[in-house]
Amino acid sequence: MWEVCAGLFHAASQDLAEARRAEVAADVDASLLHRTGLSTVIASALDGMRAVDMRALLDAYHGPRLAIAAADIESPSSLHVQFPDVPVRKIHGAGHWLMMDKPDEFNQILDEFLAGVR
What is the count of structural domains for the chain? Predict the structure, then answer.
């Protein structure tokens, strides 16, 4: 599992990002979807999001914070819009999986943030 996670966040070319996206989709498709069915997966994911109290989670965490957001799909439900006290860096030209769409830019922002919390 670590290899998959490390691969997702590795600064890679767009071709590699597309290959990783396909690999992750295939893993999900091969396991969860086929065992439970698509409607169950979607219903469970939506129900899980409804039950999360983001304010309580953010209030409980007192460490350094940074939201990295896809600028082109910002909406009123975006975390940094709902919680403006969380600092945000935006990436243009990326979708929901911005760490895969723009891995170099994402990793640069993350590296800068982590360098500041050492």
Answer: 2
